[in-house]
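re: the backbone from monday

yeah here it is again, tokenized this time
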């Protein structure tokens, strides 16, 4: 999706500044087995070429940048920032990893986790969707604001989604639309990530109940596409009628304009010889026929 603030720098607080980490601070070596992934971590750790490069780098040089963790029990920790580094370290055969331990509340941990990861390039729509949702909810709880999307504070304070948008370089509307994707069933969300389903269409589908979303997914899977007007008509019908599976298919099919049949006219030689000399070529015959049809069209005033 196009950034509504093109050219404006994304205003993200550095993780070091956010946490009060100073450059001179030393990290501790923590057992990898003692660190759990962040609960509902929205950023995917994928075994791709970049991960292979990271694993090879860790094998050669170790983990150069400490991960960020918090204490969640006796000798137990939760990862805040560094899931990819920890995965690479584990794959490289390391048993410990350099880490900075910080004391965070749940909401502080969510905000720090999202801020540290949202700066990555090439984030998937699903990653942004759940990250924005997690941070927005944490921001609202921290600010003591009500959870309604349209609730505003008086004075100079932004609405939470506006505030988040300022931080990540998105409009408040874009933040809301990304968060809508969290209402999709996993199969449809995967289609968005794989660019098999348009972002804007996916947002509209997110307002449909989960059972019907399954039917929509099956339709896209079987037909290879879904058009915006098909979802628009479906949602409109659902306001006034009880739409079942077969009815939904009928609605979708009726939204597709039938292809115009190509008209092909063939004139046999026995008919043409009555009007053209035998030495006329096919091109000459066609040219005369077309010119006569043009005259006929003008006489009838056919547009």
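seq for it, each position gets an aa:
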């Amino acid at each position: 999706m196009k950034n509504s603030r093109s050219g404006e720098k994304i205003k993200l607080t550095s993780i070091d500044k956010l946490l009060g980490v100073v450059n001179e601070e030393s990290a501790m070596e923590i057992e990898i087995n003692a660190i759990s992934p962040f609960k509902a971590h929205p950023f995917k750790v994928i075994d791709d070429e970049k991960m292979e490069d990271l694993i090879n780098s860790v094998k050669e040089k170790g983990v150069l940048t400490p991960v960020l963790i918090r204490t969640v029990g006796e000798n137990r920790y939760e990862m805040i920032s560094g899931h990819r580094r920890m995965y690479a370290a584990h794959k490289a055969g390391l048993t410990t990893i350099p880490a900075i331990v910080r004391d965070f509340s749940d909401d502080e941990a969510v905000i720090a986790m999202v801020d540290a990861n949202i700066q990555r390039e090439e984030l998937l729509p699903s990653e942004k969707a759940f990250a924005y949702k997690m941070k927005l909810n944490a921001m609202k709880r921290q600010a003591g604001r009500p959870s309604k999307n349209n609730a505003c504070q008086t004075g100079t304070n932004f609405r939470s989604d506006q505030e988040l948008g300022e931080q990540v370089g998105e409009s408040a509307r874009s933040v809301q639309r990304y968060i809508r994707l969290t209402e999709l069933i996993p199969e449809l969300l995967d289609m968005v990530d794989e660019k098999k389903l348009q972002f804007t269409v996916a947002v509209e589908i997110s307002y449909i109940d989960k059972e019907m979303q399954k039917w929509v997914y099956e339709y896209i899977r079987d037909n290879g596409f879904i058009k915006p007007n098909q979802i628009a008509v479906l949602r409109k019908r659902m306001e006034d009628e009880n739409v079942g599976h077969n009815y939904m298919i009928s609605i979708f099919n009726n939204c597709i304009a039938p292809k115009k049949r190509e008209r092909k006219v063939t004139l046999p030689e026995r008919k043409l010889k009555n009007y053209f000399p035998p030495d006329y070529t096919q091109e000459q015959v066609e040219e005369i026929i077309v010119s006569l049809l043009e005259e006929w069209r003008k006489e009838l005033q056919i547009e």
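The two ends are 42 Å apart (CA to CA). The mean pLDDT is 84.
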